[in-house]
Amino acid sequence: MANSKRELFLKRRLRVRNKLRKVNRGKMRLSVHRSSKNISVQLIDDVNGRTLAAASTLEKDLGVVGKNNIEAAAKVGAAIAERAKKAGVEEAYFDRGGFLYHGKVKALADAAREGGLKL
């Protein structure tokens, strides 16, 4: 019984998210989505069901439109850290979804940490 790549991804995403819910102590969730062309991140308040801040490579003011590389992911991570500070959020937990923690996802998380966000 071979699972498709999509099924394996969805299982991995649910496993990661369920583990994070168990250790969530009222923190915000920093959720990452990586497509073949872009990367985006949201700072989510799960208690109230609201997005407090977001950043993406689709934003023209970041200067990375159309780029899908590690440098673009780092700029998005720095932008979300700055926007989180404006929203009054000091720490969050990192929800990588079903994506593996390396490459662009790791670069985004490292840049957010350097920007002052505790993950």
Automatic annotation (TrEMBL):
GO cellular component, one term: cytosolic large ribosomal subunit
Pfam families xref list: Ribosomal_L18p
InterPro entries assigned: Ribosomal_L18, Ribosomal_uL18_bac-type, Ribosomal_uL18_bac/plant/anim
Annotated GO biological process: translation
Role: This is one of the proteins that bind and probably mediate the attachment of the 5S RNA into the large ribosomal subunit, where it forms part of the central protuberance.
Keyword RNA-binding: yes
Cross-referenced PANTHER family: 39S RIBOSOMAL PROTEIN L18, MITOCHONDRIAL (PTHR12899), LARGE RIBOSOMAL SUBUNIT PROTEIN UL18M (PTHR12899:SF3)
HAMAP family: Ribosomal_uL18_B
Family: Belongs to the universal ribosomal protein uL18 family.
Domain of life: Bacteria
Name of the coding gene: rplR
GO molecular function: 5S rRNA binding; structural constituent of ribosome
Protein name as catalogued: Large ribosomal subunit protein uL18
Keywords of this entry: Ribonucleoprotein, Ribosomal protein, RNA-binding, rRNA-binding
